[in-house]
Amino acid sequence: MKLSVWARQRGICYQTAWRLWKNGKLPVPACQLPSGTIVVDDVPAAGGVGLYARVSTVAEKDRLERQMRRLEVYAASMGWSVIDKASEIASVTNDRRRGLLKLLKNKQVRTIIVETPDRVLPSGFCYLDAALQAEGRRVIALEEAFSSDDEKKLLQELIELYSARVLGRSGAAQRARDILSMLEKEPQER
C-alpha cells in the first residue's frame, strides 16, 4: 500500500511517515518505486508476531508489564496476530536470555517487536535485523532513540559487569555507581 494510505490508517501525518521512512525508522518494510511512490509492506510474512519485553532489575518489574502492554497495543493497532510473547528480568549483557532465545528459535514468529533496540542488544541491533531479514523475518523497535536514563543504566551495568570480572563481585555495584558519579562531576570541574 502507498505510504500516504498507511499513514492515514495509523492516524499520523504523511510528512511524519515520510520523515520516518527517510531516516530509516519506519516500523514496517518499505521501498521506493522508480516513479517515486513509496510502497509499504504492512503485512508480516506468513506466520505471526512475537513480543519481547525486558528490564534489568526486579525493582523495575512494573515497567516490564507496562512495556508489554505498549507492545500489545502496537501489534493490535497494526492488525497483527500475536502468537508468542516473552518478558524477562535480565541484564542486556546476559547472553542466555531464555525469552529472547525462544522467540528467535520459533520459526513461526516472523516479526519480533521490541520497545527499544537496547531491550535486545546493547549495540548491533541493525545486524540482528539484517540476519533475520535474510530468513524472511524481521525485528522492529518502536523507539529507536535511547533515553539518557537507559544509557546511564546500560553504562552502569557494563561497568558493574567488568568490575565484577576484574575485581570480584563484592562491591561491584558500588564501584559502578562511584565511577558514574565521578564521570558526571568531571565535566563541571573543567
TrEMBL record:
<dbReference type="InterPro" id="IPR036162">
    <property type="entry name" value="Resolvase-like_N_sf"/>
</dbReference>
<feature type="domain" description="Resolvase/invertase-type recombinase catalytic">
    <location>
        <begin position="49"/>
        <end position="178"/>
    </location>
</feature>
<protein>
    <submittedName>
        <fullName>Recombinase family protein</fullName>
    </submittedName>
</protein>
<dbReference type="InterPro" id="IPR051491">
    <property type="entry name" value="Recombinase/Transposase-rel"/>
</dbReference>
<dbReference type="Pfam" id="PF00239">
    <property type="entry name" value="Resolvase"/>
</dbReference>
<dbReference type="InterPro" id="IPR006119">
    <property type="entry name" value="Resolv_N"/>
</dbReference>
